[in-house]
Amino acid sequence: MLQVYTGNGKGKTTAAMGLAIRALGAGRKVYIMQFMKSLAYSEQKVLQGFAPKLTLRTSGKPFFIAEEGTLSKALRDKLGDNVVIFPKGKPPQDYMELINTGFAEVRSAVSSQEYGLVILDELNVALHFGLIDREVVEELLDVVPEDTEMVLTGRDAPDWLIERADLVTDMQEVKHYYTRGVEARKGIEC
């Protein structure tokens, strides 16, 4: 089955990591590629401890990227050097290469047929920003072994992916303490 967790609400990665724990508990091997993330999140420390039953890889840098015009001045000021802003349709080449190198690792993991669960965390965002081509992702989805569960997370899942998925969860923000100026808290958001 193909599962997609999307939407502007908190919890997409958290849900996928919970599914990873469930799969491990059922004796399945798990492969996780976190696109657009570096090794800076608390859950990664715990997940790495499940090796060799769980493989965790990252393909990102320790900053955010955003298209011009998508962030408010206040948010840009707040993020400072932690965000790279690029012109619409022209993402940073080095970031595209990083994402595509990570995706090549994913193809190898899927073709090995040793994983019962493959999680591509933040792949939806990479698709949205044009860091990876739809055709490349569709080619992978066409060759996923029948007994491998695929989970793709991130905001802005494209319509074609939502249509193709067997399960789609759209996490919607109803209320969030970020709007009151609460920063990401270690062990909760990061």
What would your notes on this structure say?
The chain has a single domain, classed as 3-Layer(aba) Sandwich (Rossmann fold). Helix content is 36%, strand content 21%. It is built from 7 helices and 8 strands, in the order βαβαββαβαβααβαβ.
Structural class of the secondary structure composition?
Answer: alpha/beta
Q: What is the general shape?
A: globular
Number of domains: 1
User: Uncertain regions: pLDDT < 50 for 5+ in a row?
Assistant: none
* CATH structural architecture: 3-Layer(aba) Sandwich
Let me know the average pLDDT: 91
- Rg result: 16 Å
Q: Sheet bearing the most strands, described?
A: 6 strands, parallel
Helix proportion of residues, in percent? 25-40%
The number of distinct β-strands equals 8
- Give the CATH superfamily: P-loop containing nucleotide triphosphate hydrolases
CATH fold label: Rossmann fold
Task: Name the beta content range.
Answer: 15-25%
At the first level of CATH, the class is Alpha Beta
Strand order of the largest sheet: 3-2-6-7-1-8
Q: State the separation between the terminal residues, measured CA to CA.
A: 28 Å
Write the layout of secondary structure elements.
Blueprint: E1 2-6, H1 12-25, E2 30-35, H2 42-48, E3 54-59, E4 64-67, H3 73-79, E5 83-86, H4 93-112, E6 117-121, H5 123-128, H6 134-142, E7 149-153, H7 159-164, E8 167-170
Parallel strand pairs: 1-7, 1-8, 2-3, 2-6, 4-5, 6-7
